[in-house]
Amino acid sequence: MAGRKLSRQQIERIRELHENRRQRAHDKAARVAEQLLEGELGVAEAGSVVTHHGATLIVEDADGALIRCVARQNLGALCCGDRVLWQRGRDGGGVVVTVEPRRSLLSRPDYSGRLKPVAANIDQVLVVIAPQPDFNEFLIDRYLAAIELIGNVEAGIIINKIDLLDATSRADVDARLATYARIGYTLLPASTRTAQGLAALRERLATRTSILVGQSGVGKSSLINALLPEREILTQALSAATGHGQHTTTATTRYPLPDGGYLIDSPGVRSFELGEIDSSDLDRGFREFAAWLGHCRFSDCSHTVEPGCALLAAIERGELDARRLSAYRQLRAAIPRR
């Protein structure tokens, strides 16, 4: 059943509460930074943000130690995965003084509609699907388009709960997903119950910084727990570093993987949407279109009914999947006109 629609007054109240919370965190960070700056700070050291709790950043230093830090006010919003320079204070805490340019950034809208950075410098986003609940190809297309538009990020598809499929249903799933394999997306079958495919998944994750996304019920949490056998110990270390008691499961957090690389757990972004884009940008969200883009008769071709459309011609020749173009049109139609 659909959730109850919020009234305008309720939406404004939620925005006000979140803005007040953001301002309190900002003020607290300013006070703590001022106190630290009054003391003697050490030399600048390289580190990376592991998690973010309001005004508190947990930074991992070059030796793997977790340092509780605050950021200087002029740095803007920091997030999990940011590479930073920080200086140690006399009390063992630190101040983040510089943020390095981000190679990639995953964002999502906050309650006010403004884009909020969630995870930086990620190497890949893996879309998790499952036979139960049955997957929807259009949702996969929407995820993949959003990932492609991040830029400098790999994408793949995990078919979880593969143990639920018999030979006939497995063949049906393979046929439905064949288009994605054909255009270059890696398909990773997996089962946390039988451990099938987990070795290949660990190999895919090794040396990369990855994040999993997908609809509710597809088994993301079970996968994360299987991939992070020492997650509870790591969580306890984070709790000690923050000084806030139990580490919250709603905070985006980067965990080291046993075989190398990192896995970012971000419950708030396991399901995410296309951001604010122009319709012309959406072309880049469908990687297989690249060979034909720029070859349409009209420069502003919408790839629907225009004569001389290179994509429509490719479909007629059997070189392009018609269902994927249909998904593109559906996403394009939902983009507000400016």
TrEMBL record:
Q: Print the keywords alphabetically.
A: Cytoplasm, GTP-binding, Hydrolase, Metal-binding, Nucleotide-binding, Ribosome biogenesis, RNA-binding, rRNA-binding, Zinc
Which SUPFAM superfamilies would you find in this protein's record?
A: P-loop containing nucleoside triphosphate hydrolases
Superkingdom of the organism of origin? Bacteria
Which CDD domains does the UniProt entry name for this protein? YjeQ_EngC (cd01854)
Q: What is its main location?
A: cytoplasm
This protein's GO cellular component annotations are:
cytoplasm
Question: Bound how, and how many: what does the cofactor note say?
Answer: Binds 1 zinc ion per subunit.
User: Which Pfam families did the record assign?
Assistant: RsgA_GTPase
Q: Where does GTP bind?
A: 160-163, 214-222
Recorded hits in PANTHER family, A to Z, give:
SMALL RIBOSOMAL SUBUNIT BIOGENESIS GTPASE RSGA, SMALL RIBOSOMAL SUBUNIT BIOGENESIS GTPASE RSGA 1, MITOCHONDRIAL-RELATED
- Record protein name field: Small ribosomal subunit biogenesis GTPase RsgA
Q: Which organism is it from?
A: Plasticicumulans acidivorans
Q: What is the lineage of its organism?
A: Bacteria, Pseudomonadati, Pseudomonadota, Gammaproteobacteria, Candidatus Competibacteraceae
